[in-house]
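TL;DR need structure tokens for one chain.
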Amino acid sequence: MANIILIGMPGCGKSTVGVLLAKALGMAFVDTDVVIQARERRKLQSMIDDIGIEAFLRKEEEAIVALECEHTVVATGGSVVYGDRAMKHLHERGTVVYIRLPYEQIERRLSNLATRGVTLRPGQTLRDLYEERIPLYEAQADIVYDAANADIEQTVSGIAARLETQNGAKYGG
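>> reply
TL;DR here they are.
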């Protein structure tokens, strides 16, 4: 069975929704940020601080291109959309779902921005990053799920319903 790949801004709920969606659909779950940390044996923020954003993005892309899984919900890091090879690999293996949230909700959820492993360039604000990435997420998404007025459970059930409608088959089982 195909994978379900979750993309979106940091703080949009990819990991939380991913775990619950996988459980609801009887699928496995992988968080690519955790995969990268395990491969590199250190936290994302430590990598970004030590090697810089561009080198980190290359490591992220390498980890995702090496990812081989089936029947899995994959929560990606927010910067995955910068990697053309990574996105091609993910599209070949499943349905890409963009969890969309308005900027104000993202800002409220990201109180730990300095330690979270977000690829902010010097002088770049969270708003700048949001504006830069939204068109990338929109362009890469097979499904856009607007989670602005949904809690976690509604988001999980809403994504599951959209997947079933779009793909014409029931996930899970």
